[in-house]
Amino acid sequence: MPTAPQTTDELYEALQANQRRPYGRTRTVTAEELVDAAERFEETLPLVRALLELQEAYTYGSEPRKSPVAFARLLTLFDEQPDVFDENLRHLVFWRFKWVAAALRALPEIPLTSLRQWLTEMRERYEKAGLGLQPYYGQAYRLAAHVGEDEALAFELWAGRTRTRLSDCEACEIGERALYHLAAGDDERALGTWEPVLAGKESCQEEPARSIAHALLPLLRAGHTDRARESHLAGYRGCRRNPSMSGEVGRHLEFCALTGNEARGLELLAENRNLFDEVDSPLELLDFLSGVEVLLRRVEQLGHGELPAAGFPGRTWTVSGLRAEVHGRADDLAARFDARNGTTAHTERRSSRLDRAPLLEALELTLRTRHLDEVVPGAPVVAPAARTAPDLSEPLPELIARARALDERGHPDARACWTEVRTRVTARGYTHPDDPAVGPLARLRADLLADEASRLGERDDFTGAAALYEEAAGLYDDAGTPAHAALARAHALLATAEIPPRTSASAGSGTTPRGPADGADDTPAEVAALTAAHAAMVRLHAESSGLAPYQEARLLRLRATALGLRLQASGSDGHVAAVLDEVGLLHDFATRHDVTGQIAGALILRASTFALSGDLPAAAAETDALLDRLNAHGPAWHLPRALGLRARLRLGAQDAEGAHEDLGEALRLAADWPADAVDTARLHGDLAEACLRLGRPDEALRHLTRSAELNLRRGDRFDAYCAYSNAATLSLDLGRVEDCIALLDSLLAEPDVAAGEPNDRLVAQLRLTRARALRAGEDLKAATAEFLALAAESAGWDDDPGSHAVIAAETAVLLAEADEFDRAREAADQALAAHARDPRHEALSNCLRELARLQARQQGADGLAGALAFLADAGRVADGARTAGYEAHGRSLDSALAYEYGRVHAYADAYEEALAALEKALALLGEPGPESDRAGEWAECVRFAAAMEGIYLERPAPALARLDAAVSRLTALGHTDETEPLTSLADRLRDEG
Asked: What string of DSSP letters covers 770-798?
């Protein structure tokens, strides 16, 4: 706290500010400082309020040792100065007897007699104050359940009593009753008792998150797997990283362990590493550690004890090492509680959890399914076996010969051979074969470098690829193979030209993905680089001799590729002919020398060139010819790519059904080849687009996540995160809010994403989608915090003010929903300033109208001026859109604005003005036609205008005439669904008349 409050008003403001903070050390320390500040005032009331805040911070910050101390001070003040305590403060004092009872139960060093003495004092004070004893019996039952003795009697004494004002909330009591039935082994009754909480009908600060955590396994045992999955996603978000709900976090870890989601369990454990240090409640810690041990034990049983795991601070842990540590600590805690209680309840309950067998072999919990093989940081993801891998058991000389032969043909299996060769060559004690067919070690090292460079290029690491190709060329020269050296240098020229201009001068900087900020400004430099690369290749080609046909064909392919990339970068029609000329040279040479793979490559380049130039019929004809040749002559591994190309052309021609058919066949054929060789990831991504166009969003979501998984397996993290980002957006559009949040939480926890390495704008997009999902999930506090952070960051995006405009506008709406209209106005002004630099007409108009609606609805006439100011801004945005010739994708900005003027005036009881605005909206819309997609909007304007006229202005006759005419019009046009609200209002007006 910067400075201590100097007045009681400042103290109360500081207390309110602290209450808005999340529970944890920051809030607790501030509460302690505020108690110190309150003690300096002569009045007692400030100290009372400060102590209440301090006890709450201790209770929900999982510090049970300190909560009773704060309450003791509060109780002394209550006894000595009862007049200071009004009815509300008195209620809080008696309520918090229960908090102290819970705190004492959580501390094994507190004797059982002391716990019972406290309950006796609670009962006596309640009786003396004339309060009902149901809350006392509730605490007596909880003590009996904790100790493990006489639970049934204690339960009946509590559950059968009438609730009082001091009883726990309905949700909490439902949870306790359900846990009683669960402990008795009655899953069905427990789930039935829990239903109002699980269904969201009863809730509080801790519910339904607490009940969900305990209901997960009963749901599974009852066969409700889908509900268990949904509950896990929603419930975990309600308790993660929360020290006072660490036990519930442990239950979610246990759920992961018992459903084949051990990798997700380790991910969640890492996210909650703070709990190892911040949980000061021994009882909560025991519950948490028991769940952790269930997870670690399962991972160890699966043979992954060497994996890293997040654990107690101060050292690094493996799964096995942490499990042993957790086991010892948890056993000790259980023994201490049992010693205090004189029973064996906690040891037995813990053993029961540890002995549970998995309930399901595999339950897909999230859109991003992970396996234990993927947990090791930096390790490549192991791809599942989709095809029979080539036999690589032959002696090294034969293996090297096979790798080179396959490489010459461009066969996909060459890569697996080179991987095996690399493994053997880099092994300790390697001796190079003295075999003329193998050649010198320098030649082999060059081959391996060229293979590695090719892999880097596929991941867009052009800087690394260029460097390795240059190194390989030098080694080929040393080995006396100049033709190979020439080809490696040609590859290096192309890779160098593909380095994004901003990073080409930074040696070893790796790849910088081209995000939304990179674009037109880089195009001239990119075009110039590719032009220069092509010219250098032509010179290199002319100067090289002794090229084998496959090498010369490959060099011609690189020349054509450079020009093709130039066309793609420039989009200039003037660059088309040069590409086709180079492709013609390649095709003629490959045909003359029967280089089958390069014949197909030439045809693919020709079809792609026509597509880039906009000549889709020619591109389609070329692609059909290509597929005919591949089916007749091969090579077969080009078929998936060719089908993928035709599918993209069909998507461009709005033939989504044909594209879907081609992509399905492409994926079937791709299963015969390594995924990298046929770009299976792209096929899944394109198929997702086809599915969306066909109205199959769930199928599209599956293909998007599959595309992302495949990109991760080949190390292309940027494309993987882009695919996951699209999947998250789609899942949000489908209303699968928790799926969206869980996916994004998983991605944002990745070390490279957290560091902003893939691309800072991509990371911002992931966070923005998550913020929107949080809002859709009604977690407005978390959504607002994320939007505010993004708005502050995006304010510095001088190259992309439009994105800042959208983010700031959405932030303003969230602030308005929280009644913070001054801050909402500030955010809206930021959005408008950014919009002036980079217009976002529709997004700004929508948000400004919503801001006006919120202010008018929540403040009535008092908020009219502010609401009208927002609408005036929306009017200027609409004027700008009209001037720019912008057409809205949704509602007309002008008619929507007029409608909102009507609604805002209606909220302010200005009914004549509201009616006039609605008449304007109807005039702007015009009457609907048979095919009009605006019939619903028009009908709503009619209904609203008739309501203003007939109900609020008490002119039912013209209102009924308006409604009857509209119903007749809509009925004649076939828009019968839109007539129902109108006829309902008309019936009401006639009944009231």
From this structure: HHHHHHHTT-HHHHHHHHHHHHHHHTT-T
Tell me the angle at which helices 841-859 and 893-907 cross, rounded to the nearest 10 degrees: 10
pTM: 0.80
Residue 508: per-residue pLDDT? 31
Residue 623, amino acid: T
The mean per-residue pLDDT over the stretch 159-177 comes to: 96
In percent, the amount of the chain with pLDDT more than 90 equals 86
CB 151 within 8 A of CB 145: yes
- Would you call 199 helix, strand, or coil by DSSP? coil
CA dist 646 and 13 (Å) reads: 66
What's the confidence (pLDDT) of residue 376?
A: 54
DSSP bridge partners of 317: 309
The DSSP result for 348-399, as a single string, is: HHHHHHHTPPPS-S----SSS---GGG-STTPPPPPP--SPPPP--S-HHHH
Helices 717-733/760-776 angle, 10° precision: 20
515 vs 573, more confident? 573
Report in angstroms the alpha-carbon separations of 664 from 631, 656, 685.
Answer: 17, 12, 12
**CB-CB contact of 905 with 951 (8 Å):** no
With 80 as the cut, is the pLDDT of residue 136 above it? yes
Which stretch of DSSP H or E encloses residue 922? Answer: helix 911-925
Amino acid at 769: T
Query: CA-to-CA distance for 758 and 723, rounded, in angstroms?
Result: 13
Share of the chain above pLDDT 70, in %: 96
Amino acid identity at 668:
R
**Residue in 665, 748, 659, 675 with CA at minimum distance from that of residue 715:** 675
User: Above 70 in pLDDT, residue 577?
Assistant: yes
pLDDT of res. 1 = 57
- Give the SS3 label for residue 650: helix
Look up tokens 């039952």; give the residue.
141
The answer to whether 925 and 938 are in contact (CB under 8 A) is: yes
What is the number of other CB atoms lying within 10 angstroms of the CB of residue 156? 12
Q: Which of 534, 529, 522 is nearest to 498 (CA)?
A: 529
CA distance 334 to 230: 32
Report residue 912 CA to chain centroid gap: 47
Q: Is the pLDDT of residue 12 over 50?
A: yes
For 698-712, give one letter per residue: b (16+ CB within 10 A) or e: ebbbbbbbbbbbbbb
C-beta atoms surrounding 633 within 10 Å:
12
Helix ranges (H only) for 479-548 are 482-498, 523-543
* 405 residue type, one letter: A
How far is it, in rounded angstroms, from Cα 768 to Cα 786?
8
Query: CB 778: neighbour CB atoms within 10 A?
Result: 9
Residue 821 near residue 860, CB atoms below 8 Å:
no
| Residue 918 confidence (pLDDT) | 96
Which pLDDT band holds residue 515 (cuts at 50, 70, 90)? very low
Give the CB-side neighbour count of residue 607, counting CA atoms within 13 A. 24
DSSP summary character for residue 800 = -
Nearest partner of 239 among 255, 263, 259, 261, judged by Cα: 255
Tokens standing for residue 415: 């890569």
Is the pLDDT assigned to residue 512 strictly greater than 90?
Answer: no
Nearest CA-CA partner of 623 in 646, 599, 644: 646
Residue 900's φ and ψ, nearest 5 degrees, are: -70, -35
Mean pLDDT of the chain: 92
Cα–Cα distance for residue pair 762/648, rounded to 1 Å: 25
Arithmetic mean of pLDDT, 257-263: 96
Structure tokens at 32: 């302690």
The beta strands (E) that lie in 101-143 are given as none
- Longest distance between any two alpha carbons in the chain, whole Å: 108
Q: How many CB atoms lie within 10 A of CB 269?
A: 26
N-terminal to C-terminal alpha carbon distance within the chain: 64
What number of CA atoms fall less than 13 Å from residue 440's CA on the CB side? 10
